Each structure stands twice: as structure tokens, then as C-alpha cells.
């Protein structure tokens, strides 16, 4: 519980409020600091600035309500709201209704003495604290919404004070509108430790320009020490491949400076919109040999000269690649839940032996020789292909500082690369009139010969049970040995999504309660909903580690997404960047997937 200093109304000042009935002159808020707790459980000191222009009073006159309950009708109104020095004052006029009259009597009797202001914060400035003291967050732009009569205020300096709706904004999001809330019960030690782990890793990731890697480390449950070790490795790799260029130009000096490469900082800041094109162009120009030339006199000259440096075009390419990768990661990719993923070294065809293609072990009698396993030629092939587009950042866009449009185009190309993967994978499932590609044994992927095609039926638990049985009964090549495959993923179209959710939910309930119904083993299935499917069939797939059915292969270096290259020769007045993604997909075995036609 926080400390409070109650303030009373000066009843002698009532006459100064133009002698209006049921009207009292009051202090709404002051700059008195209020102790709060931010979203990471840290103590902060919050101050509302009452400097000229800091308070938005556009909503005045303000409604007077009780205890911030906006569901009830006002019991009065606060008029003549104005700044008086470092205080916000107003005149409270009570309603003539029964509740308003009762509150007026309580004020006159000295029973009701406290007010609280409801507001939103639009901009906050952070002040560093001395050791052992909380930081101070000063709201330099905030808007008043309502005033409430309350029993105990948060701002003890206010008379006849302020409350909070929402939490203090995170330190990296102080520009966002935030509602402030009262201090809640202290979170547990485990919660505080987890918040601190997440905050520390994110802070380190942002400082070093590895935001995406940082989020991955958080999801993987790495400790701060483990994450720091990975950051060191990533930083060392970046410095080896992206050497520091000394200020004013000169030969690159790998590892010559401690800390971030200034160019890496600019890439991060441009990607996060903290640095515009003009600022980046000036920074790159300042690093280039000047030859005694004066500073650019216009944006046109600025960008013309910046584009002739080595840094600025490369910087644009780095930012564009960051956006392309971000778009690639953000695009839905349901196929990654069930396909096998591999890497190849070149564009040649690679052979993929069928799963279950190994013969059983044989008994070896005492003194007898071991026999050789029979290898099979029943192997699929896969090869990667090249996909790409050219991005263009025109000179006009540079002068207009239109980095946002370029960002969106770059991100869209990353999304397109991921969609191309999905198109290729699901195109295999639906090819050949739904029978799938022809396998090395000259039979379609889904065929009775392969025992991975059920009879058509309604989409229900019985259909899924039939598919599961086929998957479990799959044998190795030549019918040698049961593979014992377990279905991991149920793949459906949006048409079956609702029914599939119900089936899986009912299976989970049966598993928990022991009630009777369809097989509770369905509850273990991961549901994949893919819009590229037309609803004529659904599929059960085993985990790729148990039996791969469809494989997606990337050329070495393209696993994380497309690459971007800058063109050195320009045929138009624009910076051009080539986006390239290299991958391929193929059906490598029929045993790991079952098709269930829906009638």
C-alpha cells in the first residue's frame, strides 16, 4: 500500500467561485510524484508536468463521477478548468439530483475531501535515478478525461487528486498512449525473475542489433548468461563479415573498436524508424572523404552525393534485407509444421532414399558371417531452384524521404518468398488431380498400392481413425517390418477448420475426464489449416523425424530467408536491389502421409 497525504477543501474559498450554488473551487492535480510499479515490477516515480502546453484540456468542462465508475451518470461538472502555476484547478458544480445534493452536503460537512483525475499519457520523459532510488517518468503530454470523488487519492496534494488507469509504459514505448493503474499486489519472485530475464535479453538484443535473435532466445528459454554467450558469437561473426570503417573513411579495421559498428547502429535505427533517409545520408557523407567540398545545400545534392559513397547504398541494401527477412518470418507458413527441411550445397539433383528402406537385422550364429543389407534404388530426387525480383528505390522517393514505402515493398518480397514455398509444397499435394506427384515406383503419391488413401467419407472421427490405422500399418520397402508411424499433424482446409477444432477439443475433454466418445488420441494431433486446400480431402502426417513425406531443401545459406544484393550498374535514376531465394521441394516418400477424401 502506498503512502498518502490527504488534502482538504478550503471551505472559505467557496464564495470566490462566482457565488454559484453547489460550486466549490478545487485543486484537480499537482506535480506531486506518485510511486508506481512498471510492467517489469520495478518501482518508478511518476510525475504529471503542469508546464504550459503539457496538459490537454480539450475535453473540458469535465464530468464529475464517483470512484471512476463511468457506467453511472455524472454527479456534477468541473468547469473553468485552468492551470494556475504548477497546479490544475477547476470549479466543481454539483448536480441538483439526489446524489449530487448528498455529495454537496458531505463536502460542506468536511466528510468528502478528495478528488482523483482520470487521464491518459501521450509522451513521457525518463530521468535516470541515483543508486537505490526509482527512476522518474515525467508525463510531458497528457490529457484529462474526467474527475472523480474518491475516499483516498493518489496525489495527496490535490484537494476536493488523481488516480491511474493502466500501467506505466515500458521504457522503449514511452511515446504510446498509456492508461495508468494503481499499484497491484507485488508479483511473485518467479514472475519478477522471468520479467527480468526477458527485459535483459531484449535490452541486450536491441543494443547490439540482434532483435530477431533475441526473441528466439527468449522463446527457447535461454538464461541471460546463455543469451550473452550467443550474442558474443553473433557479434564476432558480424564484425568479421562487416568490418568497422573509421570516421572520415579509410581502410576497414576488423575488430579495431570495442562495441557496435556505427554502420550496424544506423541499420538498426533505420529499420526501427529512429533514423530517416536524410539523417543516414548525412552520416554516410560525413564518413566519406570530403575533398574540401562544402556541405550539401539541398536534399537533391545530399542524396546525389550520398549515392556516390560506398556506405549509403550498402546501408540501404542492409536495411532492405532486414525488412525482407522480417517479411519472410511474418508470413504464415503452415507447411513448416510437417515437412522435412534440409540444406543442399548446389543446384544438382540430390537423392533421397525412402524411409523404411532398410532390411531387418538378421540373426548371426556363433562364428557365422554378417550379411550385407540390401540397398534400394527406390529413391526420390530433389533440387533447388532460384526465385527472385528486383526492388527499386527511386531518386524521387529518396528526396521525399519515403523510406516507409520502400520498407513495405521490401517486406512484401520477403512474404512473397515464403508464399512461394507454400505454393510449391501444397502444389505437390494437390497435383495430378489430387493424387500427388508420381513417385520413383511409378505410382502416384496417394494410391491404394501405397496404402495411404482411405475411402471417401464425411469429415468425422471415423474418417480420421481410418487414416490413422493406415499410417500405423505402413511397412518398409518390400513389406519388411512395420514402421509404427504415429500421426502428428492433421492438415485441413478452412472449410473443415471448425469441425476439426470441435473433434480435437472433444478428444481432449475425453482424455481429461475419462468420458466415452471418439478416440482421445486425437487430442495429440496438431491442427494445420491451409487455405490452398479446397476441402475435398484432409491429411494425416507423421513427424518428419519419424517418416518424411514432403521435403523442402534450401541452398546453403538461404535457410533463414532470401538474400538481397545491390546492383552496381544503374540504368535508371534509382537504387536497385535484387531479392533472391533458392529452395526446392519434392515428395520423397509416401509412407509418412495419408490422404482422406471428404465426400
Q: Gist?
A:
With 599 residues, the chain is α+β, with helices and mostly antiparallel strands.
Distance between the termini: 64 Å
This entry's quaternary arrangement is single chain
Radius of gyration: 34 Å
SS field, number of helical segments: 12
Q: Helix share of residues?
A: 25-40%
Q: What's the main sheet like?
A: 9 strands, mixed
User: How much of the polypeptide forms β-strand, as a percent range?
Assistant: 15-25%
Secondary structure class reads: alpha+beta
Query: How does the overall form come out from the CA principal axes?
Result: extended
Describe this structure in words.
Among the domains are: 11-173, no CATH class; 191-329, no CATH class; 444-550 and 588-597, hypothetical protein PF0899 fold (2-Layer Sandwich), CATH 3.30.2320. Helices cover 29% and strands 23% of the residues. The protein has helices at residues 98-108, 189-208, 211-219, 224-241, 262-271, 277-287, 299-306, 311-330, 395-399, 403-430, 461-472, 494-513, and strands at residues 23-30, 34-37, 43-48, 55-56, 62-66, 76-84, 87-94, 114-127, 135-150, 340-344, 350-353, 379-382, 385-394, 487-492, 526-529, 537-542, 550-555, 563-566, 574-587, 593-597. Strands 1, 2, 3, 4, 5, 6, 7, 8 and 9 form a 9-stranded mixed β-sheet that branches. Strands 10, 13, 17, 18 and 19 form a 5-stranded mixed β-sheet that branches. Strand 2 (34-37) and strand 3 (43-48) form a beta hairpin. The chain is extended and about 105 Å long. 33% of the residues are buried. Residues 1-19, 153-185 and 243-260 have low confidence and may be disordered.
Amino acid at each position: 500500500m502506498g503512502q498518502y497525504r490527504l488534502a482538504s477543501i478550503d471551505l472559505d474559498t467557496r464564495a470566490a467561485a462566482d457565488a454559484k450554488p453547489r460550486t466549490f473551487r478545487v485543486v484537480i492535480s499537482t506535480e506531486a510524484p506518485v510511486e508506481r510499479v512498471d510492467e517489469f515490477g520495478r518501482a518508478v516515480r511518476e510525475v504529471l508536468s503542469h508546464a504550459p502546453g503539457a496538459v490537454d484540456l480539450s475535453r473540458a468542462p469535465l464530468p464529475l463521477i464517483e470512484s471512476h465508475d463511468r457506467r453511472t451518470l455524472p454527479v456534477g461538472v468541473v468547469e473553468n478548468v485552468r492551470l494556475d502555476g504548477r497546479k490544475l484547478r477547476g470549479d466543481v458544480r454539483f448536480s441538483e439530483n439526489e446524489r449530487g445534493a448528498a455529495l454537496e452536503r458531505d463536502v460542506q460537512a468536511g466528510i468528502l475531501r478528495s478528488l482523483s483525475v482520470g487521464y491518459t499519457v501521450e509522451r513521457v520523459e525518463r530521468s535516470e535515478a541515483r543508486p537505490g532510488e526509482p527512476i522518474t517518468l515525467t508525463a510531458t503530454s497528457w490529457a484529462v478525461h474526467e474527475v472523480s470523488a474518491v475516499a483516498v487519492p493518489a496525489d495527496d496534494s490535490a484537494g476536493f487528486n488523481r488516480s491511474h488507469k493502466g500501467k506505466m509504459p515500458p521504457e522503449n514505448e514511452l511515446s504510446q498512449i498509456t492508461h495508468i493503474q494503481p499499484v497491484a499486489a507485488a508479483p511473485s519472485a518467479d514472475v519478477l525473475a522471468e520479467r527480468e530475464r526477458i527485459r535483459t535479453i531484449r535490452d541486450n538484443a536491441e543494443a547490439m542489433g540482434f532483435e530477431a535473435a533475441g526473441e528466439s532466445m527468449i522463446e527457447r528459454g535461454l538464461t541471460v548468461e546463455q543469451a550473452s554467450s550467443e550474442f558474443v558469437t553473433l557479434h564476432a561473426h558480424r564484425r568479421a563479415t562487416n568490418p568497422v570503417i573509421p570516421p572520415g573513411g579509410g581502410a576497414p579495421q576488423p575488430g579495431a573498436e570495442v562495441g557496435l559498428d556505427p554502420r550496424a547502429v544506423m541499420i538498426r535505427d533505420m529499420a526501427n524508424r529512429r533514423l530517416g533517409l536524410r539523417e543516414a545520408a548525412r552520416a554516410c557523407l560525413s564518413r566519406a572523404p570530403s575533398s574540401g567540398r562544402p556541405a550539401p545545400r539541398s536534399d537533391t545534392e545530399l542524396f546525389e552525393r550520398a549515392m556516390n559513397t560506398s556506405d549509403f547504398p550498402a546501408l540501404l541494401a542492409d536495411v532492405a534485407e532486414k525488412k525482407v527477412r522480417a517479411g519472410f518470418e511474418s508470413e504464415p507458413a503452415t507447411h513448416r509444421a510437417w515437412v522435412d527441411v534440409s540444406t543442399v550445397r548446389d543446384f544438382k539433383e540430390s537423392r533421397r532414399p525412402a524411409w523404411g528402406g532398410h532390411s531387418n537385422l538378421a540373426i548371426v550364429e556363433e562364428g557365422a558371417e554378417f550379411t550385407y543389407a540390401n540397398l534400394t534404388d527406390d529413391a526420390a530426387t530433389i533440387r533447388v531452384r532460384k526465385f527472385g525480383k528486383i526492388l527499386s528505390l527511386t531518386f524521387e522517393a529518396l528526396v521525399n524521404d519515403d523510406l516507409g514505402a520502400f520498407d513495405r515493398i521490401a517486406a512484401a518480397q520477403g512474404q512473397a518468398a515464403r508464399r512461394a514455398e507454400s505454393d510449391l509444397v501444397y502444389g505437390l499435394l494437390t497435383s495430378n488431380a489430387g493424387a500427388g506427384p508420381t513417385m520413383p515406383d511409378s505410382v502416384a503419391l496417394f494410391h491404394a498400392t501405397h496404402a495411404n488413401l482411405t475411402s471417401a467419407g464425411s469429415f468425422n472421427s471415423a474418417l480420421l481413425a481410418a487414416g490413422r490405422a493406415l499410417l500405423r500399418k505402413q511397412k518398409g520397402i518390400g513389406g519388411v517390418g512395420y514402421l509404427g508411424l504415429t500421426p502428428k499433424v492433421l492438415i485441413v482446409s478452412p472449410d473443415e477448420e471448425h469441425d476439426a477444432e470441435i473433434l480435437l477439443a472433444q478428444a481432449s475433454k475425453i482424455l481429461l475426464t475419462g468420458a466415452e466418445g471418439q478416440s482421445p488420441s486425437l487430442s495429440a494431433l496438431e491442427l494445420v489449416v491451409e487455405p490452398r486446400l479446397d476441402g475435398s480431402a484432409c491429411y494425416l502426417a507423421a513427424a518428419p523425424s519419424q517418416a518424411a513425406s514432403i521435403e523442402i531443401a534450401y541452398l546453403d545459406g538461404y535457410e533463414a530467408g532470401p538474400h538481397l544484393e545491390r546492383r552496381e550498374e544503374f540504368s535508371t535514376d534509382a537504387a536497385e536491389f535484387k531479392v533472391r531465394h533458392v529452395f526446392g521441394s519434392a515428395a520423397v516418400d509416401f509412407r509418412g502421409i495419408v490422404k482422406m477424401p471428404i465426400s
